[in-house]
Structure formats: structure tokens, C-alpha cells
Design brief:
Elements (H helix, E strand, L loop, with lengths): L1 E5 L18 E11 L9 E20 L13 E20 L12 E11 L6 E12 L9 E11 L1 H13 L10 E14 L2 E11 L16 E9 L2 H4 L6
Antiparallel strand pairs: 1-2, 2-3, 3-4, 4-5, 5-6, 6-7, 7-8, 8-9, 9-10
Length: 246
């Protein structure tokens, strides 16, 4: 359990603005869970349940202070709502090992299933529900124990009044204003490659169904179903420079 200050304005500050904080609330989080690994059992798993409550005010999904659509009236002050809360449930379980679990190996060739679900109790926040499920193959080659391949499906549901805001914002920006689907799906193939010396490459390919303008509401353009490809490169400078253990 823990409590943390909410400082949404500090993202625009440099790291040298000492003491410049305007607290807008507190975030309280509590988590319970269990975890095992290959030193404890042949088929380890993990499960956790997290609850949170944020006391900070946030923008209403749809209304201005005058009760009008904030999408159709972008210059009007947005109605503020107080506090939000929700839960997050995650789990992972190893379901198959190439050695049948008969060999003591901290990095066996194994298949794991994993899932997670987050739900907001407050209908005035944009994302009401997010859930994912996936399968991962670890150490497909025993000479490369840290590599993995995976498949994942993510389902995200927006609050109904937030999709109405997106439609209004699209219309006022010159678009059609057609309704957006509340449900977005992402189908993903991913991999994790340990290059050596702590350097990691993680490529990913996704196909997105029912995308929306969440990150850029006031645009006339409407996103279409399609592919995304990218990669993450992790370079531990401390390890490469000898400042941290490899």
C-alpha cells in the first residue's frame, strides 16, 4: 500500500525547478498478490489485485461548465469532476515446459499465459475498461535463455460520453462527426532479443481495429484500421561504461 502526490503540471518543468509543486490531490494504492518462480516450483505463476483512489479533480468527458458539449465548444471551460477509483487484476501462469518440469533449470524453454484487466468505477474518465490476454514462449533456444516470442490481444473500451466528445470534436474540426466505436482491439506479435552486454531489442507488429482520435481529438481526419510496426532498443550505458554490474 502507498500514497503518492498528484502533480500533473510538473511534466512541463525541468529537473532543476526545486520545490515548485502545485499538488492537486493524492493517489492511494493498495495491492495484494502472490508470486512463484522456477526455484520454488516447476510451473510458476503470479497474480495480483490492485485498487486505487485518486482524489484529484479531472475534466468531465463531455460537458463544459455551461452544460454544453466541450467538443462543440472548445473555448469554454470544462466541467471538473472530483476523484476517481478503480481496480487492476493481473496474472501469469507457466503451462508448458519442454523438459516436462523434470530438470532444475532457471530458464527452461516454456510457454506462459498472461492476462490483465483494469476497470474504472467512474464513468467520467475516458477509458472505462482495458483488458489483455497473451501467450509467451520463453527461451526457445537454450543457448539464448533470455529471448522470447509472444502473441497478445488487447481490448479497450471508452466511456460512452467520451466517444460522443470525440465525435463532436471531429465535427467541429471539419470532419464527418460520425460516431466512434467504444471498443478498440489490438492484435500483436512481439519478441524480446538479448543482444548481449545488457543490450535488448524488442520488435513489435500490431493490427489495430476501431482506432480513435484519443491523442488528437480536434482533427478532421479519422483513423482507419491498419498495421503498426516498431521496436524498442534498450542500451544500459552504466553497464557498457563499467559503472554498473552486467
Amino acid at each position: 500500500a502507498g500514497a503518492f502526490s498528484v502533480n500533473p503540471g510538473t511534466n512541463a518543468l525541468s529537473g532543476y525547478d526545486w520545490g515548485y509543486e502545485r499538488l492537486s490531490g493524492a493517489l492511494v494504492m493498495t495491492e495484494v498478490g502472490t508470486k512463484t518462480d522456477y526455484t520454488m516450483t516447476a510451473y510458476p505463476g503470479r497474480a495480483s489485485l490492485t485498487g486505487f483512489f485518486n482524489t484529484a479533480d479531472h475534466d468531465d468527458n463531455f460537458k463544459t461548465v455551461f452544460g454544453t458539449s466541450k467538443g462543440l465548444n472548445p473555448g469554454a471551460p470544462v466541467l471538473q469532476k472530483s476523484g476517481t477509483s478503480g481496480i487492476v487484476l493481473t496474472g501469469t501462469q507457466t503451462v508448458w515446459r519442454a523438459d516436462g518440469g523434470l530438470v532444475a533449470n532457471p530458464h527452461p524453454t516454456a510457454v506462459s499465459l498472461y492476462t490483465g484487466t483494469g476497470y474504472s468505477f467512474d464513468p467520467t474518465v475516458p477509458i472505462r475498461f482495458n483488458s489483455f490476454v497473451g501467450v509467451r514462449l520463453d527461451a526457445p533456444d537454450q543457448s539464448r535463455p533470455n529471448d522470447s516470442y509472444g502473441l497478445k490481444m488487447n481490448w479497450q473500451r471508452l466511456s460512452e460520453n467520451y466517444t460522443q466528445f470525440l465525435s463532436d470534436a471531429n465535427f467541429i474540426s471539419g470532419g464527418s462527426g460520425a460516431p466512434y466505436s467504444r471498443d478498440k482491439f489490438v492484435f500483436e506479435a512481439n519478441a524480446h532479443f538479448d543482444v548481449g552486454a545488457g543490450v535488448i531489442i524488442e520488435p513489435v507488429v500490431q493490427y489495430v481495429v476501431n482506432p480513435n482520435s484519443f491523442w488528437n481529438p480536434f482533427t478532421a481526419r479519422r483513423a482507419k484500421d491498419g498495421f503498426y510496426a516498431g521496436a524498442t532498443l534498450v542500451v544500459p550505458l552504466g553497464t557498457l561504461l563499467g559503472l554498473a554490474p552486467g
